[in-house]
Automatic annotation (TrEMBL):
It is an enzyme of class 3 (hydrolase). It comes from Thalassospira marina. Belongs to the TenA family. GO terms for biological process: thiamine biosynthetic process; thiamine diphosphate biosynthetic process. This is Aminopyrimidine aminohydrolase. Keywords: Hydrolase, Thiamine biosynthesis. It catalyses: 4-amino-5-aminomethyl-2-methylpyrimidine + H2O = 4-amino-5-hydroxymethyl-2-methylpyrimidine + NH4(+); thiamine + H2O = 5-(2-hydroxyethyl)-4-methylthiazole + 4-amino-5-hydroxymethyl-2-methylpyrimidine + H(+). Substrate binds at residues 66, 104, 158. The keyword Hydrolase applies. The active site is at residue 231.
């Protein structure tokens, strides 16, 4: 055995890059989280979502918590837009901000109405640990003022959602179709436009990652790994409660 540096069972970037010369930094980050990526994209909560079988109370709780996630996500994405190197690197982030604060936000509002979510549940219930963890991680990434840290968290959030939504969309029932709260959430996280958002975030990581020194790279990887773990925690809590 060589004395190579490992991150869990995974190789560190310089060595990994030699083994995978045609793949980028974003792929390396995924390789460092081992089975956790698959655990998010194949989570049983997402299977239930794709079949329209999430019980209504779990659905309400998930949407209330996820709407709180969205607020910090918007701040973080705005921070990434501010820290991107060029106008061309900012524009896809700006366009995506518009989608999140437009169509995605009104999706939540319509769900709350249709599912009879009361203001007390919406505003008076505590954050889950996973929600708190995510809010803190997003705030930390923003406050680090390091573009790679910000994009790492965003790439996990969007990449894992493309992963599960794309998977379950293939087998979603059509007759009768899913209720809008199930189908529109899948629609928001599939398709050419959303895939282009994920590709943009990964391309940003592929650009900036190789410029980082060892300490900055390790920090970026920790953000990526923590975000992936929090995605699992979030779905676990959505499924099982706290
Ligand atoms: C927890 C979580 N992760 C990712 C997304 C996708 O934006 C979301 N809505 N919520």
């Amino acid at each position: 055995m060589s004395g190579s540096t490992t991150i869990g069972a995974a190789k560190d970037w310089p060595e990994w890059q030699q083994d995978n010369p045609d793949q980028g930094f974003s792929k390396w980050l995924v390789s460092t989280v081992g089975d956790n990526w698959q655990a998010v994209t194949h989570h049983p909560f997402t299977d239930a979502w794709g079949k329209g079988e999430v019980p209504t109370e779990n659905l309400r709780r998930y949407l209330v918590q996820d709407h709180r996630f969205l607020d910090r996500f918007v701040s973080l994405l705005a921070g990434a837009v501010a820290h991107a190197p060029t106008l061309a690197d900012r524009i896809p982030g700006c366009q995506f901000l518009a989608l999140i604060t437009g169509k995605e936000n009104t999706y939540f509002e319509r769900c709350f109405t249709a599912l009879g979510v009361r203001n007390n549940q919406r505003f008076g219930t505590p954050d889950w640990d996973a929600t708190k963890g995510f809010k803190n991680l997003m705030a930390d990434a923003l406050q680090s003022s390091v573009y790679a840290n910000m994009v790492a968290v965003l790439a996990v959030a969007e990449g894992t959602y493309l992963g599960w939504a794309d998977r379950v969309a293939k087998t979603a029932p059509t007759n009768p179709p899913l209720d809008f709260w199930f189908s529109e959430w899948i629609d928001l996280h599939t398709g050419d436009y959303f895939a282009s958002v994920v590709a943009y975030l990964n391309a940003q990581l592929d650009e900036v990652g190789p410029t980082l020194d060892d300490a900055a790279r390790a920090e970026c990887q920790r953000y990526f790994a923590q975000a992936t773990q929090l995605e699992i925690d979030f779905f676990n809590t959505a499924q099982n409660g706290e």
